[in-house]
Specification:
2 helices; single chain; 104 residues; alpha+beta; 12% strand; two-stranded antiparallel ribbon
Length: 104
């Protein structure tokens, strides 16, 4: 239940609260709860906070790439494997011919 609440909170923050800061010709886009509009949020951040946002974004990207790389080295890749359909032994295979409905 806790994971569901955490995921819902994360999803809401990312989906409902993205906004833009324009500082010195640079555009910073991130999301967290705030007041104001998305083009003009009623708050600001320090240079250190923008640096932290950039480092955390890079960390998430690097960890994701590392996980994919390590799984590829081990021989596990991210895809769904095809499985044979489950068929009861001795049960006849039924096929249905598709046709248009009768017309009066």
């Amino acid at each position: 239940m806790l994971l569901l609440v955490l995921f819902a909170g994360y999803w809401c923050c990312v989906t409902l609260f993205p906004h833009v800061h324009r500082i010195d010709g640079c555009v910073y886009v991130h999301s967290h709860p705030y007041s104001g509009t998305s083009g003009n949020p009623a708050h600001s951040h320090t240079a250190q906070q923008f640096q932290l946002i950039a480092h955390l974004s890079l960390l998430v990207l690097a960890v994701g790439a590392l996980v994919v790389f390590v799984r590829a080295l081990v021989g596990r890749i991210f895809h769904f494997r095809l499985r044979r359909p489950a068929v009861r032994q001795g049960a006849p295979m039924r096929s249905f011919a598709l046709r248009a409905p009768p017309v009066c």
